C-alpha cells in the first residue's frame, strides 16, 4: 500500500467523497487565507509582552515562533484526532483580549496572564474529555451562535483601524478620523487596505497575505525614493542616529527560551484571589469565544445540523484545548479554530488531510522568521480590518423579526466593540435571551441550563465591573 492509499484510508476519503489532490489544494488555500496570523499575532502580543534585554522585533520574532509551534500542534490534533478540515492558531480577538484587556488594561503581568491561559487550557482539556464543554455550548441561544462571528468581526475591525491610525482617540467624541493627509504611514495602510479588499473581492487566493506583503513593499519604495522619512519603516530598523540597521534581520531571534515556560514564573508570588479571578475571566472569554468561532466556521462550511449544532463537537474542541495549553507553554495566547478554514472547505476540503497540509505549511514558515522585521505595523494590521468585514456575513442568519433573536443578537454584536470585550458581548446576549423569551410568552422554549448560564454570567459582570480584578 502506497503513501497515497494509506492517507486515503486513514482519513477515509471515500466516505467523504474526496481525494488527495482536492484535500491538498484545500489545505494550501486555508493556509494562504490564515497565514497572516503568523505576522499579526506577534505584533499584538508584543504590545503587552516586555522581555528585559530584548527589543520589540526580537520579541515579535520569538512570539512568531511560538505562534507557529502552537498552531501546528493544534492543527495536527485536529487532523489526526478530529479528522476535520479546520485550521487553528492563536485567535484574533482572544490575542487582543490578552494584550489590551488583561495585561495593559488590568495591569496583570504577562507571565501571569500566560499562566492563566495554561490553567484554563488544562480545564478545557478536562471538561472537553468528559463532554461538559459540548453540553454547555449546546445551551447557547441560537441568536448568540449566529451573531458571535459578526460581533468579533466589528471588534477586530475597530482595533485594526486604530492600530493603523485611521481611527484615533478623541476627547470629545471618543473616536474620530485620523489625520490621514499628514500621516504617510496611515495613508499607506489605507492604500494597502483598499488593495487587499480588491484582491479579496476578485477571489485572489491569499489576498490578505498578498496585501500585507505589497503594502510593506510600497512602504519601502516610498522611503527609498525619498517621498517619506523613516516613519513608514518598522521602528526596530531605525537606529538612534536615524540611519537603518538590519541586525534584527541578519541575526534573528530563534531562541525562545525567554518565553518558553514563562508561565511558571507567572504562577509564583501571585495573590490567589486575583489569579483565580483572572483565570475565571479568561475561562469565560475563551470558552465562549472559542465555541463561537468554531460554530461560526462550521456555519460557513455547512457542518452544522438543523439545530445549529456541530456533530461530534468534542473532538475539534479538544484540538483547541490542547493547542491553548501548548500555546501558553511557548508564549502565546489562546488557540482556536479559524473562520478562514471555510475557504478550504469551499475548495472541497472535507477531512483532516486538509488540516494536515495546513500544519505542514505552518512549520515550513519557520525559515521566514527573519523577514518579519521588515514588516511595518500598519501593514500587518490590515488583516484585522479585512477579517472583520468578512465575519459580518453571519448577520444574514439572524432572524431579526423575532424579538428575542433581535435583542440577543444585537447586544452580542454591539457590546463587543463598544466595551472592548468579546466576553461582554457574549454574556449580554446570553443573559437577555431567556428574559425576552419569557416576556413574549415563550417561557417554555427556554431550557433550565440557559437560565443557569445567564445567572452565572450576571456573576461574571459583577466580578468584571466591581473592581475586584484591579
Automatic annotation (TrEMBL):
Mention one GO molecular function.
purine nucleobase transmembrane transporter activity
Which stretches are annotated as coiled coil? Answer: none
Segments passing through the bilayer: 24-45, 57-81, 88-108, 114-132, 144-161, 181-201, 208-232, 275-297, 317-339, 351-372, 378-396, 408-436, 448-465
The record ties this protein, via Pfam families, to:
Xan_ur_permease (PF00860)
Q: Which UniProt keywords apply?
A: Cell membrane, Membrane, Transmembrane, Transmembrane helix, Transport
Cellular-component GO terms for this entry: plasma membrane
Q: Where's it found, cell-wise?
A: Cell membrane
Keyword Cell inner membrane attributed: no
Q: How does it sit in the membrane?
A: Multi-pass membrane protein
Main location per UniProt? membrane
InterPro entries reported for this sequence: Azg-like, Azg-like_bact_archaea, NCS2
Member of which family? Belongs to the nucleobase:cation symporter-2 (NCS2) (TC 2.A.40) family. Azg-like subfamily.
What protein name does the entry list? NCS2 family permease
User: From which source organism is this entry?
Assistant: Natronosalvus rutilus
